[in-house]
Specification:
The protein has 155 residues and is an alpha/beta fold. It has four helices and seven strands. Helix content is 41%, strand content 19%.
């Protein structure tokens, strides 16, 4: 009697698996017939995949970047942060600068070694780099966006 129930349970599981397989197959065929392109789905998932983290120097340090919007135009800091993440930089903060009337975009080195800041500047299209070292900063580099942001590569 117990083997009967065991056999019935096994066949029920197999039956449900086969039904689920054919339901997925039918859904895929229906989506494909309606013009759905499965490659678009993989492109959508690629947006959520974390970008490779850019490292610098012989010790392969991650370049941590703070983005401050000083242009007075909303949303530009977030757009720049996305672009930096796509380039492999680790954005640790996005916010507004102390003023909203900066004309020139600048890259600020927060460490004595300016090579990380120069790397960020190269990626952005070579805005000026200044050194303002501080050991208490969370970021290695700060990017202050000015109203000349059209010179900066954001895409």
């Amino acid at each position: 009697m117990a083997t009967f129930f065991l056999a019935v349970g096994f066949f029920a599981v197999v039956f449900l698996a086969v039904v689920a397989f054919f339901a997925l197959l039918f859904a895929f065929a229906l989506a494909t017939a309606s013009g759905f392109d499965p490659r678009l789905m993989s492109a959508a998932w690629a947006r959520f995949r974390p970008a490779p983290v850019r490292t610098h120097g012989p010790e392969h340090r991650v370049v941590r970047v703070q983005v401050l919007n000083g242009s007075g135009e909303g949303g530009v800091g977030s757009k720049l942060a996305t672009y930096l993440r796509e380039g492999g930089f680790q954005v640790v903060e996005v916010g507004n600068a102390d003023r909203s009337d900066y004309f020139a975009t600048m890259v600020v080195a927060r460490r004595n070694d300016v090579s990380s800041a120069e790397e960020v500047a190269r990626y952005l299209g070579d805005p000026p780099v200044i050194r303002q070292a501080s050991s208490t900063e969370l970021a290695d580099v700060t990017v202050v966006l000015g109203s000349d942001r059209s010179r900066i590569h954001l895409e």
